[in-house]
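ok here's Dynein axonemal intermediate chain 4:
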Amino acid sequence: LQVFDDEGKDVTPHPLLHSDPKDAVHGQGNLLSSSACCGTTGPCFLSSFSMHQMAGMSTKLISLLLNLEQKRSCLLTSCNFSDVQVRQEEIKEELTKEDLDRRVDIYLTETETIWMLDMPSVVVSVESEDADRILERNRIYVEICKNRPGNDRFVEKIMQTINEATKNKGLQCDKVIMEDKGMLVTSWDLYDSFNILETKSVSKAESSRATTGKTSTSHATKEYNQTMSVSSHRGSTTSVSILEGAVLPRIPKEEECHSEAILTSINFQQNLFFIERILMENIFQPKLAAYRQFPVLIDPDVTSDTSDKVAAMKEANQEEQDKEKEDKEEQKETFIDPSVLSDLKKTLEETVPPRLEQLWSYMCNLTHGHRVSSMAWNKVNPDLLAVGYRAFDFKEQEKGLACCWSLKNPMWPERIFRCKHGVTALDFSMTSPNLLAVGMYNGSVAIYDVRSCNDTPLLESSASSNKHTGPVWQLRWVEQDRSATGDGKKERLICISADSRVTEWLIQKRLDCTNLMEIKRTASEKKKLPGEKGRKREAPISQQAAGMCFDFHPKDTNVYLVGTEEGHIHKCSCSCDEQFLQTYRGHKDPVYKVTWNPFSTDMFLSCSADWSIILWQQDSQMPILTFSSTTASVHDIMWSPKSASIFAAANENRVEIWDLSVSIIHPVVSCFASPGAEFTSVLFANNTDCLLVGDSEGEVSVFELQNLAAHSSNKV
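and the structure:
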């Protein structure tokens, strides 16, 4: 028999167990035919099995098959086969060779999973505060999973996590050093340490704390007695450890807060400031006295050793007085005029060579390794010095410093202004001495208030559309009218930069500038030899020349000098911004500094990287004198404020003092730099005979000029 549905598909059921393929095929046909034609039970069903199979079965199995056949016959008789068409066909009892050789495909598929028990895991309790939020998230996740099939936004992907092998890592540290410490503690020390709060108790709560403190004191004394008994056997170390363990946890926190309040109070900081001043005065008193040209004081509280020295000095003075008396007697005898002796003494003093005596150095850990780029005195306070620092390497100009040093503390600056870029120039204002103008390597200009400790500048040129695009090599506050006095004095801030501009900055709500001069390149004047043909000149890459330095005339503030990178010096006027008044050609390399003589105002000096210093007269384009003592670049020069013939120069390896009234070939004083350092700038003190020298290591050395007489002449 074969069973077909309405669509004509074969839905004939197949047996579950086949003992023999041939017998199974025959048994299937007999079984269906007997059950479909008649509702017989045992005999018809058993007839489909061969006698050989029946012989091999047990009685229990036969009875089980009979029961199954009876149940099956009942089901077939009760079911309605109106929807199923049953067609009987002749089934071949024997299989042919073709049937045996025919390929039969059998497909095994997985049935649907039958869940016997489903208990979802619970991580968060239903009664917790986050239960509603987590349930809402689970509901959203279920909806997403429902929309996942057939959606292009979801991609099936398999991930495999690999657990890496564990590694062993060893560390090496310093050996822990143990020390034994012993101390002696009395009972009253314990009592005082446990009753600190009793002295400050005012309220009832604090009084109750005091009573608990008394009870704890009694326990502490017991612990102390126990520790003392233990220390007799184990030594003083165990007693101290037990004692400290009992005392330290009970130190009140209020004492710590009180100590912090004291350390951060303004009065305490002011007192520390005054103590620091006193200590610095005591340490540097002899050097500061020599700087100010005062006599050095001797401490009255001298020891026995110093008293012996003082006695020896008195004896030496007494011997000198005796010698002077003898000399006077000899003078009377030989009838020598005392004025002649005074002249002889002066000549002896003049024969003593001048020298530089180092007093101290302005340097700290903050400035170490930075190059000193410029120095400037405060116009009102002569003891306040501003120093600019930048990186030594030109390629790594990241951050700079502008520090204000005072003679009252040579070991740490009074003000520290941290700049974003290297400081190349600075100067104090004259009308407002608290304002410090700072020029930086990136071309920006900032103005700081030295009365404030804040690093933020009052004004900055970063917002200006006309700001410099190159390093600001020099800036200065210049008076507009030197004859004005009092409140009528006005000044302007002048800068020169590598972008070939000389600018005047207007100080208003923000910094903005106007151009005084745009420096242009000038053709070099070379004399042609007789018979030499004219050559074609090569066109310069840029028509502009980078500015390096400038200086205004001491009397006429409308006239100024400009030093350029090409080695020329131009005389300019503020009223003409397109043409030079005069050009001085003498240097072959960049001009680092140009300065007018403060006494002989028609003379000026210039230094360059071509190892030379040139003395000029403003009416002549030819150099008057050329000084070249070493084969090194001259970074800075400065005229002495007390003599018209003395100036200082900073070479790479030494600092020199020149006196034109003594020699125009060799300097009168030279001081070499320390190994690995280079001198970068010089500055004379205004009210003393001292010279300040900055180097490439961030050190500003203060030298005293000894045995250097300043001449009264005001002309070179």
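+1. The CA atoms of residues 446 and 460 lie 4 Å apart.
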